[in-house]
Amino acid sequence: MIYKFIISFFLLGVAVGGAKEVNGLYDIEVNTIEGKALKLSEFKNQAILIVNTASKCGYTPQYKGLEALSKKYKKEGLVVLGMPCNQFGQQEPAAEGEIKEFCKVRYGVTFPLLKKADVKGEAQHPLYKFLLANSSDSKDVAWNFEKFLINRKGEVVARFGSKIEPEDKVLIAKIEQALN
Questions:
Q1: pLDDT given at position 61
Q2: CA distance to 18, 81, 151, 178, 180, per residue, from 86 (Å)
Q3: In whole angstroms, what is the distance from residue 178 CA to residue 158 CA?
Q4: Which of 130, 119, 104, 125 lies closest to 48 in space, CA to CA?
Q5: What is the pTM of this model?
Q6: Domain boundaries in the chain?
Q7: How far is 44 from 46, CA to CA, in rounded Å?
Q8: Tell me, what's the pLDDT at 113?
């Protein structure tokens, strides 16, 4: 009898919010590269391009194109978010302050950078768990500079591999579609 009571109490607690569960993109909280909490709900009704980044990668020059996309489509509602990751060839060994400075000085990055995090494996950030679970391709992120595009409803609408440059016509067409 007491066992049934404990189980019922636990289930009631879960049902009314006793356990934090991610139901959608806007439930996820990330930390900026400066260490401030950022709720993705702040980007409701905007399209979001999320990219795992690294400073010592062959694809690092994509920062320039990502910044150009951010500037070109910001007024239309696009947000570019970069999440540094050191899981691929140890190509992001720097601390957050160094990463931020590198991106600003070398590529003029003004779009939000997030705290360095894992995008795959046991310590995978909840954002990437959501992205993979809601993408048409749920395979692990394979390398730096993979891109996930979110529409204004918070839905993953496209995924692009590292080789797809920010200037790619297909990527731009999908961004424009997500903004409309």
A1: 98
A2: 33, 16, 27, 29, 34
A3: 9
A4: 130
A5: 0.87
A6: 22-179
A7: 5
A8: 98
Q: State both tokens at 147.
A: 């891109």
Instruction: Please name which of 106, 108, 86, 88 lies closest in space to residue 96, comparing C-alpha atoms.
Output: 86
What pLDDT sits at residue 22? 54
Contact in structure between 48 and 81 (CB atoms under 8 Å): yes
How many angstroms separate the CA atoms of 117 and 172, rounded?
27
Q: In CATH, what is the architecture of 22-179?
A: 3-Layer(aba) Sandwich (3.40)
Q: Is 85 among the catalytic positions?
A: no
Tokens 């439930």 locate to: 27
The span from the CA of 34 to the CA of 119, in Å, is 19
Amino acid identity for residue 85 in this structure: C
Closest CA to 117 of 27, 42, 31, 25: 31
Active-site residue, selected from the candidate residues 57, 69, 119, 149: 57
Q: What is the mean pLDDT of each run of 10 residues along the chain (180 residues)?
A: 41 40 83 96 97 98 98 98 98 96 97 98 96 93 98 97 98 97
Amino acid at 107: Y
What is the DSSP secondary-structure string of 108-164? Answer: ---S-BBPP-BSSSTTB-HHHHHHHHTSS--SPP-STT-EEEE-TTS-EEEEE-TTS
Tokens of 78: 């696009």
